Automatic annotation (TrEMBL), chains A, B:
The keyword Nucleus does not apply. Keywords: DNA-binding, Transcription, Transcription regulation. The keyword DNA-binding applies. It holds the Pfam family TetR_N. Residues 12-72 form the HTH tetR-type domain. InterPro entries: Homeodomain-like_sf, HTH-type_TetR-like_transc_reg, HTH_TetR, MT1864/Rv1816-like_C, Tet_transcr_reg_TetR-rel_C_sf. This is TetR/AcrR family transcriptional regulator. Gene3D superfamilies: Tetracycline Repressor, domain 2. Residues 35-54 bind DNA.
DNA sequence: CGCGTTCTCTAGCGGCGCTAGGATCGCTGT
DNA sequence: ACAGCGATCCTAGCGCCGCTAGAGAACGCG
């Protein structure tokens, strides 16, 4: 039986290799450069092995996105603990994440439509990130439902992040925008 | 000289034909189905004709997006005039636009990164839509800069629209979210 | 009518995501 | 020790993509 375990271990290592390679390639040259051929070349296997791990290219990107959600959750947690005002800290950390890891943020939100949210099989990392936001919002909720208010706050952050990233909003006064948003919460 | 004018007119008609065909095809089968081959077939010309009008496929999508901005601006204007509370009306109209014309909204915000915003050559329709939002926000701005506050409000709406569209937020309680957002403005 | 420009098409390039089918490797039972 | 047999992996190729070069047709003009 140990043989199968070793094989399974090797499989999972290779799966990590694929996901990491996809992320590195995307961070180096953008998601357009992430093709199955280039990915296969980078991991030194042939194309078809990708399909023995993932259903298709989208699934690989979704795996990168899940990693991204885990990192985002970790950074939000750290920011909530460290900042004088948790909500400010979390919001700043969120915008910083989107700004410094654009490739991850794209995978998480712009691409990969079929990641289950608010479902039984939702990856834990996704829930965790939202949880961090909710705990930061809760003290400011007043009579409002904290969960729903968190959704609104998250949407505002997401909007700021994506509109800025897409060149729709000039980057320079982002701090001012964030201040106005926080003042209203 | 009249001959050149006639030709120019025909060219512009064909350009409209291309943009409309792209939009119709996208609305019928999604943007993935909009390929240069299928588009050429639909307008009953060969592929290279497309490239005598537009630099590439992205430019065609950008043209559809500009049409979208014009429609959005028109709907926001109507909503601002008709609603009891302008801000509520405009916000509702914005979310309704994203919900009922997902294909246009995608072209405007998810794709086509290289539409100039806040630049000399920014299409007027883009400015107009933002102007409608700004006029609706202004009475609620208090001591805040209305333009910046409008950006924040727009970002919040955009976030709600995209997160809902991507399945990140369940659609059912969108009205409740909008109420919470409006209450904070 | 013949000429030159202007337009449009056929054909093809390199690359894409993905898959079928055969070769090869490594474990297993005799 | 070795033949048999799955599991594993690669070569080759399908149909499609965005885009372009170059041939040929259509059209206004002298």
């Amino acid at each position: 039986m140990a043989i199968q375990e070793r094989r399974e271990r090797a499989r999972q290592e290779r799966e990590r290799l694929i996901v990491d390679a996809a992320r590195e390639l995307a961070e180096a040259e953008g998601w357009d450069a992430v093709t199955t051929r280039r990915l296969a070349e980078r991991i030194e296997y042939s194309q078809p092995v990708l399909y023995s791990h993932f259903k298709g290219k989208d699934a690989i990107m979704a795996a990168v996105a899940v990693d991204g959600f885990a990192e985002l959750a970790a950074e939000l947690r750290a920011a909530r603990g460290a900042a004088a005002d948790p909500l400010t800290g979390v919001a700043t950390a969120y915008l910083a994440f989107a700004e410094t890891r654009p490739v991850l943020y794209e995978a998480m939100f712009t691409h990969s439509v079929d990641l289950a949210f608010a479902r039984p099989d939702t990856p834990a990392a996704l829930q965790a990130g939202f949880g961090e936001l909710r705990e930061a919002v809760r003290p400011r909720a007043g009579d409002d439902d904290p969960a729903v208010l968190t959704e609104v706050f998250w949407a505002a952050l997401h909007g700021l992040a994506t509109l800025t990233r897409g060149g729709r909003l000039p980057r320079e006064i982002q701090e001012q925008r964030l201040a106005l948003l926080l003042a209203r919460f």
